Amino acid sequence: MSFTGEAAPATRHPLTPVAAGRTDQGPVRDHNEDAFVLNAPAGIYAVADGMGGHSKGDFASRALQETLEQAPPLGDARAQLQDMVARVDAANALMRAEAAASGAAAIGSTLVAMLVSGPHGLFAWIGDSRAYLMREGMMHQTSRDHSVVQALVDRGQLAAEDAEKHPHAHVLTRAVGASEKAEFEYAQMELFRGDRVLLCSDGLTRTLTEAQIADFMRRSDTPDAISSALVEAALVANAQDNVTAVVVEMT
User: Fold this and answer.
1) How does DSSP classify residue 238?
2) What is the dihedral of CA 217, 228, 113, 162, to 10 degrees?
3) Which residues make Cβ contacts (< 8 Å) with residue 145, sequence separation at least 6?
4) pTM reported for the whole predicted model
5) Between the CA of residue 82 and those of 2, 19, 79, 111, 199, what are the distances in Å?
6) pLDDT confidence of 106, banded at 50, 70, 90?
7) What is the helix (H) or strand (E) element at residue 132, kind and residue range?
8) Is the per-residue pLDDT at 10 higher than 50?
9) Which domains, and CATH codes, for the chain?
């Protein structure tokens, strides 16, 4: 996947992302395996949802968080993407080495990220943490879950509305740490002033409906207030997992 985004054209005023995030272990879990990244200088915003048992899920999501937070601003979109992928591959290798050393069956994490360069946004994801775009009051999912139930939906063997109730709803088909190389899927689009992006873990999407999430994303409020309100709503609804929301607004 090549990222074609470069500097904003002279005919368009440069966009400035304003971002905020919140994460919570939730009312059921005793620790938090989610993590998020707000690396504005490098244009990287991300959410990771770790897995692998107590402490190991923490290890996986924190490995991604730490390496992406350290990504430097490179100025060139292609170089920034290559650096981000290399960092995720390094975290992937670290997870696999830790699993081998500790005897764990697997240590891994989902990852959903947005890389912003000028007026362009590149979404990259592995697993079932999601990205949504809100534009002019309409919200749509820009990522596609890497899960057993999504594969069934894609093949027409399961109705989308029945996916969350399926017994294999939590089974992933891709994760960072699951294979020798991180297997990203990508979507690229032009961004406009007023666009809002939500990056979130499945603790949010398994607790609130897309209609409920969209209502929060439409609020005339700051990204900080919206991300906090989304997580609070999931906690009130007794989320069964860790909950994380990152909201990025293009200004």
Assistant:
1) T
2) -60
3) 127, 128, 130
4) 0.91
5) 9, 23, 5, 16, 21
6) confident
7) strand 130-135
8) no
9) 17-250 (3.60.40.10)
